[in-house]
Write a structure and sequence with these properties.
Order of helices and strands of chain A: EEEHEHEHHHEHEHEEHEHEEHEH
Largest interface: A-B, 41 and 34 residues
Strand content of chain B: under 5%
Number of strands of chain B: 0
CATH superfamily of the largest domain in chain A: P-loop containing nucleotide triphosphate hydrolases
Number of domains of chain A: 2
Shape of chain A: elongated
Number of helices of chain B: 10
Number of domains of chain B: 1
Strand content of chain A: 25-35%
CATH architecture of the largest domain in chain A: 3-Layer(aba) Sandwich
Number of strands of chain A: 13
Shape of chain B: globular
Oligomer: heterodimer
Order of helices and strands of chain B: HHHHHHHHHH
């Protein structure tokens, strides 16, 4: 086990009959990271994390979690890993407090259930039965069950699906608090804003392949780059603009000039144009979004993975 | 977020905690309890009163109606408990609860074990109600042969519960499980002698009843409550059913 590596996935392959759900995926996750896995529906995200949590057995490739094998060290790994499953319900008449107490009894170093419920804001519904909970309350309970064992790695699958915007933001704040305690988090999502906001690094999976693995900023830049529009104090020709480092495209509309490219475009433009005595006003900078990256990367031909494993 | 920092707590043992929680759930969804306690109590009342109206000696057996029906009612209690088993188990599998538990250090077989322990408790309650009720309220003259009785009870429970587990193993959905359990319920009830006792009939139907899973159980228990050894064929049939049902249930059981 390399220092600081919590999860190492190497050449993971998982097939369901004729369908290859995961086709040779490799990455590793560092201690304390929030690692996002994004991709379209049916891309293989859930299968990948199910293999990591030991719920499924890979057809080939290797996985280690804290240096242990999810298949052979089942019990030890389950003490270290908390899982929040996509679409998993509880018996309808089980109470919130009972469920958390029950799960606490499963782990050797569990958290105090009442305090956990308190911090998740569901202490007041301790006596409510599962069947009577709202979507947001069910999600919080699900997170509580994933955390009550005091895990060092939390796997959260489709965490905020079905939540209203306020509940989503609260859940995000919660994830950040979890990370601040030193828990490594794997976050499976198909919400780009969620991944962009929370994740340190993102693996983009499509049709069983790893298409990209990088920070949200780098992925966004790779897709659309940055856009800066401004009004120059005196006319500037295309040659001059294209000579500025990072600039790749120029559009003009009335007095406005819009350039797209990579890197810190606004600063480069201000500096380069300032040297020839041109000042910029009305500057508006917009970063390429992860959405753009997502669309661009997932619409490629299947057999063309972008960027190999750039794991630390 | 101070709460998320407080660790190192050790609560009750998982099995004890599971038992308490599943026990509470069993009281909130009292199918097993109904089958194990209410249904046999009602049947005992019905056949107790019939026995008073129509005294003595059914079909030259020297037994009263109630005498004949005591084993049947006990077997019916086991059947009711057993057919409620797939409902809960298949539901828990269908909603992903068993799978959820399997992501923890506790394997879901413990959930199943706890369920079976609770069902055994219901079964013991049913036995107590029927035996004590029939003797104290309706004055049945039982001479329970303890070794025979224990043997007959253990085999009956093993056989009928393993059949319930087999239904749970094979049912693809809760809807299917309820439907299958419903049909099976009435077939088993018939074979146990609820509508016609095998001593009252003859020929192939009697043989079918005697060697059917619940008919054999009723027959073994009838002998046992009057201190007679159950026929070897009956015992062997019950052992055989138990082995087949258990093996098939294990073979086909899925946790998710």
């Amino acid at each position: 086990m390399r220092a600081g590596v919590v999860v190492a996935v190497e050449h993971l392959v998982k097939r369901y009959r004729d369908f290859t759900a995961v086709d040779d995926i490799s990455f590793s996750i560092a201690d304390g990271e929030i690692f996002g896995i994004i991709g379209p529906n049916g891309a293989g995200k859930t299968t990948t994390v199910e293999c990591i949590s030991g719920l499924r057995v890979p057809d080939s490739g290797s996985i280690t979690v804290f240096g242990l094998s999810p298949q052979h060290d089942r019990d030890r790994i389950r003490e270290l890993v908390g899982v929040q499953l996509q679409q998993s319900a509880l018996p309808p008449r089980l109470e919130v407090g009972e469920a958390v107490e029950l799960f606490a009894s499963f782990y050797p170093n569990s958290l105090e259930p009442r305090d956990l419920l308190e911090s998740l804001g569901i202490r007041q519904i301790e006596r409510a039965k599962f069947k009577n909970l709202s979507g947001g309350q069910k999600q919080r309970l699900s997170i509580a069950l994933a955390l009550v064992g005091n895990p060092r790695l939390a796997i959260l699958d489709e965490l905020t699906t079905g939540l209203d915007p306020e509940a989503r933001r609260e859940t995000w704040a919660l994830i950040e608090r979890i990370r601040n305690r030193g828990v490594t988090v794997i976050l499976v999502t198909h919400f780009m804003d969620e991944a962009e906001r929370l994740c340190d690094r993102i693996a983009l999976i499509d049709r069983g392949n790893l298409r990209a693995l990088d920070t949200p900023e780098a992925l966004a830049a790779q897709a659309g780059g940055h856009r800066v529009s401004f009004v120059p104090s005196s006319p500037v020709d295309d040659q001059t603009l294209l000579a500025v480092p990072g600039v790749s495209q120029i559009e003009r509309k009335e007095r406005y000039v819009t350039v797209t490219g990579a890197g810190d475009l606004a600063a480069s433009l201000i500096e380069a144009l300032g040297r020839i005595g041109v000042r910029l006003s009305d500057i508006e900078a917009r970063r390429g979004s992860l959405d753009d990256a997502f669309v661009k990367l997932t619409s490629r031909a299947p057999a063309d993975p972008v960027g190999s494993d750039q794991a630390r | 977020m101070s709460a998320l920092g407080a660790a190192g707590r050790r609560s009750r043992r998982p099995f004890a905690e599971l038992l308490v929680i599943e026990g509470k759930l069993a009281l909130r969804e009292p199918y097993g309890l109904f089958g194990g306690v209410a249904f046999p109590a009602v049947l005992l009342g019905v056949f107790g009163f019939i026995s008073r109206m129509v005294p003595g000696n059914v079909g030259n057996t020297g037994l009263t109606v109630l005498d004949l029906y005591i084993p049947t009612i006990i077997v019916i209690a086991f059947i009711s408990i057993a057919v409620s088993l797939p409902n809960t188990l298949v539901r828990d599998r269908e909603i992903g609860w068993l799978r959820r538990v399997s992501t923890t250090p506790v394997h879901p077989w413990r959930l199943l074990a706890v369920q079976l322990v609770l069902d055994l408790v219901f079964a013991v309650l049913a036995i107590a109600i029927v035996l004590i009720g029939s003797v104290t309220i309706f004055g049945a003259h039982l001479e329970v042969g303890i070794p025979y009785f224990v043997l007959a009870i253990l085999l009956s429970i093993a056989e009928i519960f393993s059949l319930g587990l087999l239904v749970a193993a094979l049912a693809p959905s809760q809807t299917f499980a309820s439907a299958a359990a419903g049909v099976l319920f009435f077939v088993l009830l018939f074979l146990s002698g609820l509508w016609v006792q095998p001593v009252q009939i003859s020929g192939p139907l009697q043989a079918i009843m005697y060697y059917s899973p619940t008919g054999a159980a009723s027959r073994a228990l009838l002998d046992a409550v009057f201190n007679q050894a159950p026929p070897l064929g009956t015992i062997l049939a019950m052992v055989g059913y138990t082995a087949v049902f258990t093996a098939a249930a294990i073979r086909f059981f899925r946790w998710e």
